[in-house]
Specification:
It is a single chain. With 163 residues, the protein is mainly β. It has one domain. It is built from 1 helix and 8 strands. An 8-stranded antiparallel barrel has the order 1-2-3-4-5-6-7-8. Strand 4 and strand 5 form a beta hairpin. The protein is globular, with a radius of gyration of 18 Å. The N terminus is likely disordered.
Length: 163
């Protein structure tokens, strides 16, 4: 009877459940880095039409902890602000695109900090498991120059301290 219950439980799992994709070597934080924080982001990637191409402007996302509690925000810079008002600014140093329908995964290096708190210690950031967020594929021409578009995305951000 227990095997039947386990089988029925497995059949009830959502089809959208995914086995996590391995993290490419080029996106791994520097040796000696220590995980500090794992946050989930939901928001938009903002683009502007330059007359022929959609150009990335900034992210605009809310950050959540594992319990779903809002704990911060992510915006231009790129900047992440934690609920203690500390901030870290990063610069992309590597990327990979395991899902061509989503924005790339990134490894970022911290380039600046503001405030005292959690983000003050961050040295590296990973953006992983992205969904959505790609620039629109149409409606960017001379007639639409200056037009802004927002595309919804989700991602996981892992923050590291380290060497």
């Amino acid at each position: 009877m227990r095997l039947c219950a386990v089988f029925i439980f497995l059949l009830a799992l959502p089809c959208s459940a995914q086995i996590p994709t391995a993290i490419p070597d080029n996106l791994k934080p520097p040796a000696g880095s220590t995980p500090l924080l794992h946050l989930h982001a939901a928001g938009d990637q903002i683009y502007t039409c330059d007359g022929s191409t959609w150009v990335f402007v900034a992210p605009n996302a809310t950050l959540f902890d594992d319990s779903g509690r809002q704990v911060g925000s992510h915006f231009a810079g790129p900047t992440w602000e934690y609920s203690d008002h500390s901030r870290v600014v990063g610069k992309a140093v590597a990327n990979a695109n395991p899902d061509p329908t989503a924005i790339p995964w990134l490894l970022l290096q911290a380039t600046g900090h503001q405030g005292n708190g959690t983000m003050q210690r961050v040295t590296a950031i990973q953006r992983l498991y992205t969904k959505g967020g790609k620039a629109p594929s149409t409606d960017c021409d001379a007639e639409h120059k200056g037009r802004q578009a927002r595309t919804h995305y989700t991602a996981d951000y892992l923050f590291y301290t380290g060497p």
